[in-house]
Amino acid sequence: MDQGLLIVLSGPSGTGKGTVCKVLMEKRSDIALSISCTTRKPRVDEKEGVHYFFISEQEFNALIEKEAFFEYANVYDNYYGTPKSFVRSKLSEGKDVLLEIDVQGALNAKKAFPDGVYIFLVPPSIEELECRIRSRGTEKEEQIQKRLSKASGEMKLVDEYDYIIVNDRVDKVVKSIENIIEAEKLKVSRNRENFEYLRSDDQA
Ligand code: 5GP
């Protein structure tokens, strides 16, 4: 059986990764969404095991020790990590797996798993990003400035990714991701093993 495709949706904080991910998952029940562990406290509308697995820093450290994370990162003073067992087992069952993670985590994941598809979601402009972060109303001025300067730095890492999508309309972004998935699955490099006549001489 073919291995599933690992799809990593990443980008600076405030670009709308969460919304895109939600709409994509509503449309595509064939994709498995990885639920991360975090040391952040749950927000009012968040449920254990649905949005995250909420754990203590001690528990998180124990999982790092056990090498239980596919990738992990510290994002604004909280730890976030992707459980390795879920990702590995779904991929080997042939299921596509979606990760919605920060830029640092995506770069770590790429080192460990270069065969994934790494998608960079960006805002239409830095001004638009500032508007979005402000309209959330959850951050103080100092935090807003911190997020904006971090976002500018992260934008420079675009070359580490395979694809870039501007988030100007969620439905358009979702369609682009679906197109990327379809095209990736048609790549010769992902199909060689399925066709005897495509195998190179040394494999034949
Ligand atoms: P939030 O606290 O707003 O849910 O997420 C904060 C940031 O952490 C977002 O950029 C989100 O994509 C990222 N994030 C969520 N889960 C993970 C994870 O497992 N690994 C990494 N590296 N980042 C994550």
Describe the structure.
The chain is of the alpha/beta class. The chain has a domain at 6-34 and 96-198: P-loop containing nucleotide triphosphate hydrolases (Rossmann fold). The chain has helices at 17-27, 57-65, 84-92, 103-112, 126-136, 141-155, 170-185, 188-191, and strands spanning 6-10, 31-33, 37-38, 53-54, 69-75, 78-83, 96-101, 117-122, 163-166. The strands form two sheets. The protein has a five-stranded parallel beta sheet, sandwiched between helices. Strands 4-3-6-5 form a four-stranded mixed beta sheet. Helix 1 (17-27) packs across helix 7 (170-185) and helix 5 runs antiparallel to helix 6 (141-155). It starts with 5 loop residues before the first strand and ends in a 13-residue tail after the last helix. The mean pLDDT is 94. Bound molecules: guanosine-5'-monophosphate.
Quick structural gist:
The chain has 204 residues and is α/β, with parallel strands linked by helices. It has a domain at 6-34 and 96-198: P-loop containing nucleotide triphosphate hydrolases (Rossmann fold), CATH 3.40.50.300.
